[in-house]
Amino acid sequence: MGRYKRPEIKLVPVPSPNIIPERDVDKFPVLEALNLGIDFGGLTAVEEFNMAIGCTEIAGLIGPNGAGKTTVFNLLTKVYQPTRGTILLNGHDTYNMNTVQVNKAGIARTFQNIRLFSNLSVEDNVKLGMHNHIKYGMWSGILRLPAYRKGEKQAHERALELLSIFDMQDLASQRAGSLPYGAQRKLEIVRALASGPSLLLLDEPAAGMNPSETDELMENIVKVRDAFKIAIMLIEHDMNLVMGICEGICVLNFGKIIAKGTPSQIQNNPEVIEAYLGKKKEN
After folding, report:
1. End-to-end CA separation in angstroms for the chain
2. Does residue 220 carry a pLDDT above 50?
3. Left (φ > 0), alpha (ψ -120 to 50) or beta: where does 191 sit?
4. What CATH class has 1-106+197-283?
5. Of 45, 48, 17, 46, which is closest to residue 35 (Cα–Cα)?
6. Which one of 70, 122, 142, 181 is at 20 to 30 Å from 21 when CA atoms are compared?
7. How confident is the model at residue 139, as a pLDDT?
């Protein structure tokens, strides 16, 4: 399988301190964070975080360990409520939303540490991601009424369709915990897609993968974006993956953004190089 080659992209300003791909400029950014910040016990963990993601963009959030990347994901998904700032999702303020409401509004995520229901089947894990789309009520389920049977048939067909993205439909009846590590990572992505997001957040999706699996993941992330016409934002330490598929990249260090731009701009940014490699000692 050949490595995906990211096309050159032009980033343009939107009416805020942010940039998105030129092709998305006539639509609302799927996500806009404005002056976002959070304090824990008087200590500032994230400060003045400003970022926009175009509605079909593959974006990257990178930085050294402890820079605050997962904290940003937790803010966007309302695991943490921001101390200050605004989060707009498809142009709507998510103020006072909780994690469930944000998910229904269009954000789905995966985690650094795999969080599957290991004892359930692969298919059942995907079905759990469809909670936003269940049409039948509790009594229909208890009494096995026609609405329940129809809903279950539709859920089964949709689960197999989603699993086929990663050629996993033949694994539908297997126990999720019995899958190889790479397949569990893919299942997490499929389960997140099952909620019908407009923005998919991937927290270190290539963690633990070998180079071949990472190459396949790169192609699959692009395939997901193109098939579902959604935006994807990822935290990742594998720079080959980040530079290979991300269009806009935001670099975080000590809770603050130190650079934003295209992969080529980020690779040549002195502040980014210093954050990752340290400052050279003067002779």
Report:
1. 47
2. yes
3. alpha
4. alpha beta
5. 48
6. 70
7. 44
